[in-house]
Specification:
489 residues, 16 helices, eight-stranded mixed β-sheet, Aminopeptidase, 2 domains, six-stranded mixed β-sheet
Length: 489
């Protein structure tokens, strides 16, 4: 089901199927007599009173034989997140009641009780985020579009014509599309091509192929992908939104397009979902698309490592030793601890090449973080208190929550190897997410402020959530966009 939103000046009242009106917590409508249907306001108020229920968020009733009125209850002083969730709930309501043509009136919307000038944008954003579906491979699709008309009696405001929410929606849905694609379609070769197409919106993009990576010395990343017939890539995306030469904000993502576990083979029931093991990279790509579309006034870079972790005669073996881009050697004791190898090279490369203000990496890195935090919080590990606080606050505002987890030098000894500079797993067990983050921290060489977001429990939902219908969630795009808006633009 898709949402089609149109902004119009004026309205032909006889063509309206379903009026949508906003009411306060007592189902009272301020300014009802100012609406186009104000001459029937007393009649409408009587109908509302007879249908009123404090337990209901929404009610609808017949206005006449051809038209219905849909009433949406809005709490006083709703937050932005509450506005979005209200929109998501409204989508469920109209879908279940098969209300396909809806008309909103400007006075009632823009003179809202909660005095939030972005209310309608946030409400509509919630509808659109919730309505996402990935159905491109279904041969029979239900034709059930919902048409929404936002009507203005005067001119259409400029903020509608340049709506930042549209850019955020496109970036988030692009991330969801990438995560939802099956592994036979979105392998590293195809993934890099799709990223390169984003040049047309103003991103500067470079895809380093296997031969280039070998010359650069990215042995950790290449070791993960060497068992696949597909290529391995490091793709950089640069957005220069301000002319002054300032340090860019850097975002790094794990892009394991499919993860069998390699020779440390996953059980079948854990492998079937491993098409989304590239969700960290998808969040970075979606964020960069959002920044370019909304012409963000910052300089930023996104870096993603794209590989496929397969089993073959050429695949990496447990016990292999590889040399990373940093020059440090890694003993690979478990080929299913592959994401940290990809990120190791990507992190050092990003720090050396771009000398950024900070680095934030995202990865579906460990099952241990799901044991710790379930699907309510992403795990946050960081060497910087200020950046951590900014991330947590941004996450609370968009309902993409983070919980800070510990890093400590005492964990380092668990990753030390007798045969190389380090090994890729904790040899005594326990603290799986922390030791993985501690491993990554070794590849931040110049004390750059850094945060690692382990989003294994957040990137995909089988059951859906407040703003998601199930499947890929797009976690990270709205969070990082909010971080940038609040703290760096």
């Amino acid at each position: 089901m898709s949402i089609k939103i149109s902004y119009k000046k004026g309205i032909q009242e006889n063509l309206v199927k379903n009026y949508v009106l906003f009411a306060n917590e007592d189902f009272k409508i301020n300014g009802l007599n100012k609406l186009l249907l104000g001459k029937q306001s007393s009649q409408i108020n009587k109908i509302i009173k007879s249908n009123y229920s404090k337990k209901k968020e929404f009610i609808f009733f017949n206005h006449n034989s051809d038209q219905k009125i849909v009433l949406v209850k809005i709490k006083n002083n709703q937050t932005s997140t509450e506005n979005e969730k209200k929109g998501a709930n409204f989508y469920n309501f109209v879908k279940s009641n098969i209300l396909k043509n809806l008309t909103f009136f400007d006075v009632n919307i823009f003179e809202t009780q909660n005095k939030n000038k972005n209310f309608i944008d946030e409400f509509l954003h919630g509808i659109q985020i919730k309505s996402y579906e990935f159905n491109k491979y279904k041969t029979k699709r239900e034709n059930s579009d919902i048409n929404i008309n936002i009507c203005f009696r005067k001119k259409i405001p400029n903020k509608v014509k340049n709506n930042r929410f549209n850019s955020l929606l496109e970036g988030t849905n692009f991330t969801k599309d990438l995560v939802s694609e099956p592994g036979n379609i979105l392998h590293p070769d195809e993934y890099s091509k799709r990223i390169l197409k984003l040049k047309k919106i103003g991103l500067k993009i470079k895809a380093y192929n296997k031969n280039e990576l070998k010359k650069m010395g990215m042995g950790a990343l290449l070791g993960v992908g060497q068992g696949s017939v597909r290529g391995s890539y490091l793709v950089t995306m640069e957005w220069n939104g301000i002319k002054t030469k300032t340090k860019p904000l850097a975002f790094v993502g794990k892009g394991v397009c499919f993860d069998t576990g390699g020779y440390s083979l996953k059980p079948a029931r854990f492998m079937e979902d491993m098409t989304y093991d590239m969700a960290g990279s998808a969040a970075v790509v979606g964020l960069m698309k959002t920044l370019a579309l909304r012409k963000a006034k910052i300089n930023a870079v996104g870096v993603v490592g794209l590989v496929e972790n397969m089993v073959s005669g050429n695949a990496q073996r447990p016990g292999d030793i590889v040399k990373s881009y940093s020059g440090k050697t890694i003993e690979v004791l478990n080929t299913d601890a592959e994401g940290r190898l990809v990120l190791a090279d990507a992190l050092t490369f990003t720090e050396k090449k771009y000398k950024p203000k900070f680095i934030i990496d995202l990865a579906t890195l460990t099952g241990a973080i799901i044991v710790s935090l379930g699907s309510e919080y992403g795990g946050l590990f960081s060497n910087d208190d200020k950046l951590s606080k900014q991330l947590i606050q941004a996450g609370e505002k968009v309902d993409e929550k983070l919980w800070r987890m510990p890093l400590h030098k005492n964990f380092d000894k668990l990753m030390d190897s007798k045969n190389a500079d380090m090994q890729n797993i904790n040899y005594v067990g326990g603290a799986g997410s922390t030791t993985a983050a501690q491993f990554l921290q070794r590849f931040i060489l110049n004390k750059t402020p850094w945060a690692h977001l382990d989003i294994a429990g957040m990137a995909f939902s089988k059951y859906g959530g407040a703003l998601n219908s199930g499947g890929a969630t797009g976690f990270g795009v709205r969070l990082l966009n909010k971080l940038i808006e609040d703290s760096y633009e």
